[in-house]
Amino acid sequence: MGRLAQWLERLLHTQEVTGSSPVPPISSPVLSEQLELRELLELILGPEGRRRLALRHMPNDKLFENYDKELMLRSRNPRNLDSTRSLLAQFKQYLGEHPPSALLARGFLAKFTDKAPRTLLKYASIIKSFMRYCGEPIDDFPLPKVPRSLPNYYEDNEVERLLSAIENKKSHKGTIDRDSLLLSLALTSGLRRSELANLEPRNIHADFIEVKDGKGKRDRIVPLLPDIAVRLRNFIKGKQPTEKVFGLTGPSISNKIKRFAQKAGLNDFHAHSTRHKYAVDLLESGVDLRSVQLLLGHSDLGTTAIYLSITDKRLQDAMGKLKEHMDHKRRIRQPKSDKIVLYKKGGAVILRRPTSTG
Asked: Residue 134, exposed/middle/buried by CB under 10 A (0-12, 13-18, 19+)?
């Protein structure tokens, strides 16, 4: 049946291109009716085959335009949508008038082999999704392996230095309360910068906040520490329900935190570091991994599990036991003392070297 479909498709394409006379209807004893070649072909291919056939004969302008509508339905993150559109625009220019093919897609991706593995993985995923939509999948394309790096660990005193840098700033003193609350909330809620930027008074309740996921996938509930809840409620007094609480964009929040971190001597601390610190604090407090996943809004538990490498008490206990073992071995191997001890026995004085106790 597969070969028959391919033959019929080639025959139909040949007649459309050459303009030859129409193929006479084909009589089917099974269906007891006469079918035009196109109708028979569509019947054999099915809905998905008909869709792919239509896309194959579609000009690139129309093809990319249709796919853009698909993207708008699937993506809720404007930033991701913009980056995807940018790469697809480059791919469209690379194709020119040629229809998308696996060979051309591989050639396009080969231009980015000098990029970081994470960037190349993102580009490959975008092109693979587009090619799958076109009916020309490149599922056998080898995706680069991205090394998983551990988040930096920050001590509590380092975070205190960061908060002090905000409270002691010499200019724009009118924003000290806002900036201090912003950072404190980030450290005790794990909100992403986009979630902080989009937070509205209507999302804030007595002891929790409703978080609109910055990745556009889901909402979640995050409990608030009592003092942070009080500060938030006081801060939003007089604000409209749909007004942005902090009045800052995501990039502005990143710049602020980075600038204050540099003043505190934390050059590698950034907006997302507050989220790392929150996760580590939860795990060190004994919160189970599944709860941490829900609080952070991770779709994959494996993403949350990376923090165990930093906080796992069993690893710390293992190192403690190793230290005890090494100390014991050093005591056993300790050489005999060179000290001379005087012993008085009767009327004579005896010089003796003490024996080792092991």
From this structure: buried
